[in-house]
Amino acid sequence: MDFQKLFLEYCNKKDFEINQNQVNISNELHKFYKENFNRSIFSKIFKRKNQKLGFYLFGGVGVGKTMTLNLFFKEIKEKKIRQHFNEFMINFHDFIFRSENKENGINNFVKDLNNKADIIYFDEFQVTNIVDAMILGKLFQKIFEENIKVIFTSNISINNLYKDGLQRDQFKPFIKILEHHCHENLLKIDEDYRTSNNLDYSRYLYPYNQSTNFSFNKFLRKITKNKKKTLKKIEVKGRSIKISNYYEGIAKFNFKDLCEINIGSEDYINIAEICDFIFINGLPNFNENNSNHQQRFITLIDILYEKKIPLTILAEVNLKDLKSSFTLKNQFKRTVSRLHELTSIDYN
Asked: Are 90 and 144 in contact (CB under 8 A)?
């Protein structure tokens, strides 16, 4: 696979601007593929000492990280898994919970993983959960020992992962493992392609008033025409989530029912599994007083973006004027960038 050539052909086909930094990354990915998937007998017997099993691509929001790795991942013919990291860790914890031999749970999980994938792809990788932070070192050490390749995109360099997190000292072994096993590359571009392509994000309505509320509900009526309204219930580990406005794959929520109650990534994943389009009414502005709600909203948008679910939102303020709590401001840049795309009329 000549990935640099494929990347240039893709850009020309889509009439995308060809950026030299992205071309350089595509060349590095080509080298990574050759290094790890060379099928010669010699290369299987003698691994180079400095062989890296991971590729970690980081940079600002909207610079093309996901586009580049999506294209690369699509071309890989080997066994592969692409998964949101929250979903991956939920599967891990479920596996350990069901395991009879919990002391050997990580080894058994990775062996099972090895049967399913030669390479795993985590898009927009970040760690926010203290429980996950404490076990990732052992988990990923075993993943690399089993010769499973891992590719990441992130807004954060490896050394800055889980920065200022609780008990970060217990996270540092994982940082060292990633630095040892991964090619780390920065993709630096001065503009956010999601917000600079003049996307008409007319499905993002603001402020709250009679006119925007009418437009919000008018569009809901339009795309749910001839669809049956039902009360949908989702059961997640003993929790029951009710969707009172559900129309055969189209769901309407109030923000408070999604982000102001005690639910999290596993619940959002289950919601995303049954939805093709989501309406969210009542998106507030954020500050230090509602940072918990903001963190849930960030997680929700990450999952909906991963599942490619378009949105219509009725918000308190213009998208460009959305504020953030101080502690979440860097993460929230990604969320705002993704909202530009998910609410664009060009995205469906």
From this structure: no
| CA distances in angstroms from 293 to 31, 41, 199, 342, listed in the order given | 42, 54, 27, 20
Residue 146 has, within 13 A of its CA and on its CB side, a CA count of 23
Alpha-carbon distances of 14 from 17, 38, 175, 225, rounded to whole Å: 9, 30, 37, 34
Amino acid at 336: V
| Token pair listed for 310 | 């378009």
CA distances, 132 to each of 108, 115, 137, 214 (Å): 18, 23, 9, 43
What average pLDDT does the structure give for the chain? 89
Residue 203: helix, strand or coil by DSSP?
Answer: coil
- Rounded to whole angstroms, the Cα distance separating 148 from 125 reads 17
State which amino acid sits at residue 176.
K
**Predicted model pTM:** 0.73
21 contacts 189 by C-beta, under 8 angstroms = yes
The model's confidence at residue 194, banded by pLDDT at 50, 70 and 90, is: low
CA distance 126 to 258: 21
**DSSP string of 141-190?**
HHHHHTT-EEEEEESS-GGGTTTT-TTGGGTHHHHHHHHHHEEEEE---S
Query: Does 44 score more than 60 pLDDT?
Result: no
Phi, psi of 307 (to 5 degrees): -90, 0
- 265 neighbors 303 (Cβ within 8 angstroms): yes
**Whole-number Å distance between alpha carbons of 201 and 299:** 21
What band does 145 get if pLDDT is binned at 50, 70 and 90?
very high
Dump strand ranges (E) for 37-131.
Answer: 54-58, 80-82, 119-122
**Nearest in space to 158 (alpha carbons), one of 186, 116, 123, 196:** 186
Token pair 């699509």: residue: 74
pLDDT, one tens digit per residue, over 225-266 is: 999 999 999 998 888 899 999 999 999 999 999 999 999 899
Structure tokens at 280: 């969210």
